[in-house]
Every structure is written in C-alpha cells, then in structure tokens.
Amino acid sequence: MPPPADIVKVAIEWPGAYPKLMEIDQKKPLSAIIKEVCDGWSLANHEYFALQHADSSNFYITEKNRNEIKNGTILRLTTSPAQNAQQLHERIQSSSMDAKLEALKDLASLSRDVTFAQEFINLDGISLLTQMVESGTERYQKLQKIMKPCFGDMLSFTLTAFVELMDHGIVSWDTFSVAFIKKIASFVNKSAMDISILQRSLAILESMVLNSHDLYQKVAQEITIGQLIPHLQGTDQEIQTYTIAVINALFLKAPDERRQEMANILAQKQLRSIILTHVIRAQRAINNEMAHQLYVLQVLTFNLLEDRMMTKMDPQDQAQRDIIFELRRIAFDAESEPNNSSGSMEKRKSMYTRDYKKLGFINHVNPAMDFTQTPPGMLALDNMLYFAKHHQDAYIRIVLENSSREDKHECPFGRSSIELTKMLCEILKVGELPSETCNDFHPMFFTHDRSFEEFFCICIQLLNKTWKEMRATSEDFNKVMQVVKEQVMRALTTKPSSLDQFKCKLQNLSYTEILKIRQSERMNQEDFQSRPILELKEKIQPEILELIKQQRLNRLVEGTCFRKLNSRRRQDKFWYCRLSPNHKVLHYGDLEESPQGEVPHDSLQDKLPVADIKAVVTGKDCPHMKEKGALKQNKEVLELAFSILYDSNCQLNFIAPDKHEYCIWTDGLNALLGKDMMSELTRNDLDTLLSMEIKLRLLDLENIQIPDAPPPIPKEPSNYDFVYDCN
C-alpha cells in the first residue's frame, strides 16, 4: 500500500552525529517537526533551530516552501535564520580581520536565501554594509599595501552580499546616499581594480540606474562613458558584458532630450568600433548574456530614429523643402540650367513638376505631401538625401534609368524609398523597447557609424534590381515590396558579419531564386485540394500526429535547461528538467551553470510523477506571471511562460529559452495528459510531413490527372462463364 501523500521520507543531518531517517508529516506545523528532530538529538531551545537543504543552495525550509520537499531529500538541522543573521551581524563588525573576512564570506553565501535575507535586513544589515563600503576603505587604507589580498576579498564579499540582498526586492534602491554611490563609482573609475569588485560595482550601478530615477541622475553625474570604455578593451568577457549593461541602462533611462546627446558622446568615444574590435571580432565565442546586451544596444541605437520616423514634413518649412530641391539638383544638375533666370515662373514650375515625377514622387506638384505619413515621416527623406550624397553615382543611375523609360516599367524612386524605409523600421522594430529574453543582434550593424542609412542604401538598390527582374509596373508595387521584404529577411537570418557580406547574400537571392524557394516550401494548392487527396490526407494524418507526438516526448526525455529569470539577468540561476524514459516521472533540479549536453537523471534531485499533474497553463494564466514587476509584464516573457499544476496548490513554473522549446514542452506535456497538441510548431510540422508523405505516395501518378470523383463502377456482366474455378 503506497504511503499517504502528506508523508515525506527524508534524511536529516547534524554535525558530529549520524544522519537520521525520518518521515515528515506535511500536515504538522514546521515548528513541531523541528522540535521532534531536536528532541531526538537532545538539543534544547528548538526555537533557535531550523531545517535547510543540504545541497549547494543551503536554502531554509519555511511554511511557504515546505511543499518542495520530496521523498529522498537530504536536510540539515542548523541555527535558525534569525539566530544566524544576529550572529553574522555581530561577526562582520569584529575587530579581527580574519574573523571579519570569514563572516563576510558566509554572509555572501547565505544572502541568496530570501528567508535569511529578510532576517538580516530586519537588523538594518543593508545600512551596516553600506557604511562598511563608505568608511571601510579609508579605515584600511594603510593596510592595503601589506594586506591587499585580504582587503580585496573583504570588499568583494561585502559587495556580493549587498548585491544578493538587494536582489530579493525587499529594500528600495532609493534609500542610498550620494557617498555610497560615489564610492561604488570610484571602484569602476579606478584603472587597476580587482575583477570581482569591478563586477559587483558595475552590477550595483546598473541596478541603481534601472530601479530609481533619482539614482540614475546621481550615477550619470559620477560615471562617464570615457571611464567605462577601458573596461571594454580588456579580455574578460564578463566585465565587458557588465560594462555594456551599464551603458545600456544609462541609455534606456536617459530623458528623450538627453539620448541623442549621449549617442553623440558614444560616437565620439568610438564605442561602436571598440565593441566591434574587442567583443564581436575577438577570438572567442559570444555568450548568451553578451549577445543580449549587444541586442539591447542595437535596439536602443535604432530607437534614436523614432523621432524622425514619427515627424511629419511641414510643407511650409523652407529648410525641409530645400532637401527635396537638393535631391532634384543632384539627379538632374547636368540637364538643368540653374543660371537661366529668363524663363517664366510657369516654365520653372512645369520643369520642377516634370522632374519630381521622374524622381518617383506621388504628388508631383508638391512632393512634400508625400512625407506627411508617419511612419516613416522625415526619416524617409533623410535616407534619400544620404543615398544621394554618399552613393551619388548609384542614385543618379537609378533615377535617370527609370525616368527615361517609356514602357510603364519604371520604378518610382520616391515612393519606393518611403515604403522601403517604413518596411525596414518594421523589420528592425524601431520604437519598440528591447525584449528581456532576445539575443538577436546583427554584427553588421556594428561595422558602420551610419548603419541604418547604409542598410537603406543597399536595400533601395536591391528594390530597383528586383523591380527590373519582375518586369513590374506600378500595379505590382506591393508585390515587389513583399519580395524585397522576403529577400531582406532571408539575408538577415544568415547573420552576415558586414554590410558587404549582406550585399553578397542579397545578390544570391534574386527574384528567380525567391520563386524557387517559395516553390520548394509550399505545396501546389491546386493539385492537393481535390477530394481524393483530402481523403488521403485524412487517412494518414493520425499516423503523422503520432510521429510528432513521439518526437515531442523524445525531446522531453532529452530534457532542457531553463533559466530562473529575475530583475537582474546576470544573476540568473539555471535548472534542468527532463522526462524519464518510461514517461512516468519528470526529473528536475537546480544547476550552477548552463550544462553542456544532457544532465543525468540521478543528478536531478526532485521528481514529479506525471500521474500527479492536474493541468498545464500558459501565458497570463501562469502563477509566476501574475506577480507584480516589470519583468512579468514583458510580452516576450509572457509568450514563453508555462506552468505545471499538481496536488492542491503546487506548481512547477517554466520560462522557455525560446519559442521552439516552448512549443516542444507544451506539446509534450499535453501529449502526456492525453490532450491535443495545439502549438504553431505542431501545425507547421503536420503540414510539412503531410505534404512530404502525400508527394511520396503520388510519385507514381506524376503527370496523371487525378479526377475529383472516383470512376463509375461498371455494370455487372450478363453472365460469369469467364470465371475459372481453381478447385
């Protein structure tokens, strides 16, 4: 007979004694269980004791998390969080340097536990740490030369404990003094500083900027871009990552009027070329966190274009109209006569109207009206002027080539530029805030100071080339734009390392090639919609769905590494989850770092029987997505969140690393529960596999017309004399 669900079998350790095997009744108060354990070892004052996990986490067991205890868990009897916090609070104020160092080391480790953190904070521990940072460096200034390693470790552990305590979100960031900010900033500004101290200091500055508007202003006064740049020129990728994170935080929180000014400073300090040389083209792989920070910097840089993108042109503004005149002058300078003032005003207007038509504007009389739509607003005109000035030969060739055609196949440069700018803004999501989980940065955008304008110049030439290949007319304008968008998107997915490489990728993606790709990626709808084919599809669909189901379950058996996201990404913890080969149990557990390959079942300490799973919920229905906080409201995170509900109020919360893994896991879990697999990935896989299977079965019927209805059954013969009886 199986044991009751509320009884958990565990082992409990106590220093200097043999471990005890116990059955814990989860219905009993935790204090009663601790008293029972203490009585077994004849320990008085049970209220001074607590239970904690004996693994590397050392987290305390509380009434809130006691349901996470599973059969076979190893626990440890230890001093209570309140007692531990009190002792450490006294020990870190010891006059002995060795005792102080050991206490700070223990504090840095224990502060990861929210239960201990709450007790230590209640003793005003945060204030004590900040005072130690502010005054400690002066106090031990004379000892630095003779005790430099000890001093460095002490400061490192102090800052680590501070970071861990603040990470729980118990204390507001607004409570810190200017003296503390100056001290942290001084650690970043020093050229020779211990790596661990520099890491923690950069992390603290980033959190200050992101969590408090007042602190942003104070940090911005203490830290300059010039002081951060040297940290990017080193070889430690983690320091580089923290440095770019601080720059991104300052960029993100800067007032609108300050952002362009900050961008100009970044350009003056050659941040882009330094990142390209020392990060992107360094002889080492870029890890996920660095990729995320580069993506954020890319998004924030492109978002500077939003102001121009959303600015309508004022037809009465002479300075803006002069830009259009300049476009006309560059294109038609050779054939125009600027010094000929004898012509009447009517003739000049007529000439301008003719030239504006050649330039491809919709409104020939007043082309300024073409730029009143937002997006792309004035950004389109900026791009056109950049192309005309910096790629003058290509600009003149495109304009004159199309203005001289009389066969209705001319590509309107003005209209094309406006629509192309709008399309590129959509592709790069100009104006949207960066995602919390995306790592999708493009190295080529770090190779030029005017990368968006150069991107436009390459794409407008592609558009003109594709227009000619399609022999398009004005009626085909939208079709051409769709093809160009597909060409650009396909080229971007290859992550070209430079703009020249991007150009080469586009050269290989001609209109003919796009047609071939489209042909290979889709079924011929006309051939596959007849009734016999639909019936065949219906017949083989269950087999295909079973195949997809098995693939999903096999992937769950392999397992996936998930991230425990919090308010500061780089402090993320990892955990792994996988299905047992017999599909009966989910094994999961925490990891110190992202694993290389599969994680064995026996190294995952927690189990969840599949039979105990009540439901799988996604998105906003997940318990961890109902919590408050900026991260929880992020749309991208919502789309990757799912939870397993089991027992009465228990849940296992997930945030998938990407959309593909999200689909794999939600499909696999639904398959385990006997429900339909409803993900977009399943639909795509089903369409692809059905298409392949149908084509394979119809190979022998090539060039044979399949009728919509089966052939008529012939009449019965008048006699059966032709039948031969073998018996």
List keywords for this structure.
four-stranded mixed beta sheet; 28 helices; alpha+beta; four-stranded antiparallel beta sheet; 727 residues; 9% strand
C-alpha end-to-end distance = 64 Å
Amount of helix: 40-55%
The average pLDDT is 86
Helix vs. strand class: alpha+beta
| Total count of helical runs of at least 4 residues | 28
DSSP summary, beta strand count: 11
- Strand order of the main beta sheet, please? 2-1-4-3
Low-confidence stretches: 139-147, 337-342, 628-633
Biggest sheet details? 4 strands, mixed
Computed over alpha carbons, the radius of gyration is 34 Å
Q: What portion of the residues fall into strands of 2 or more residues?
A: 5-15%
The coarse silhouette is flat
GO molecular function, one term: SH3 domain binding
Organism: Canis lupus dingo (dingo)
Pfam families: ELMO_ARM, ELMO_CED12, PH_12
Main location: cytoplasm
How would you characterize the overall build of this protein?
This protein is α+β, with helices and mostly antiparallel strands and 727 residues long. The chain is 52% helix and 9% strand. It contains 28 helices and eleven strands. The protein has helices spanning 30-40, 81-91, 97-110, 114-122, 125-139, 148-167, 178-189, 195-211, 213-222, 225-232, 237-253, 256-268, 271-280, 288-302, 306-309, 318-332, 345-358, 378-390, 392-403, 413-427, 451-470, 477-493, 499-508, 511-521, 531-558, 635-640, 659-672, 680-697; strands spanning 7-13, 20-25, 49-53, 74-79, 560-564, 573-579, 585-591, 606-609, 613-618, 641-646, 650-655. The strands form three sheets. A four-stranded mixed β-sheet has the order 2-1-4-3. Strands 5-6-7-8 form a four-stranded antiparallel β-sheet. A three-stranded antiparallel β-sheet has the order 9-10-11. The longest helix has 28 residues, at 531-558. The relative contact order is 0.05. Residues 139-147, 337-342 and 628-633 have low confidence and may be disordered. It comes from Canis lupus dingo (dingo). One of its GO terms (molecular function) is SH3 domain binding. One of its GO terms (biological process) is phagocytosis, engulfment. It is found in: Cytoplasm; Membrane. Its main location: cytoplasm.
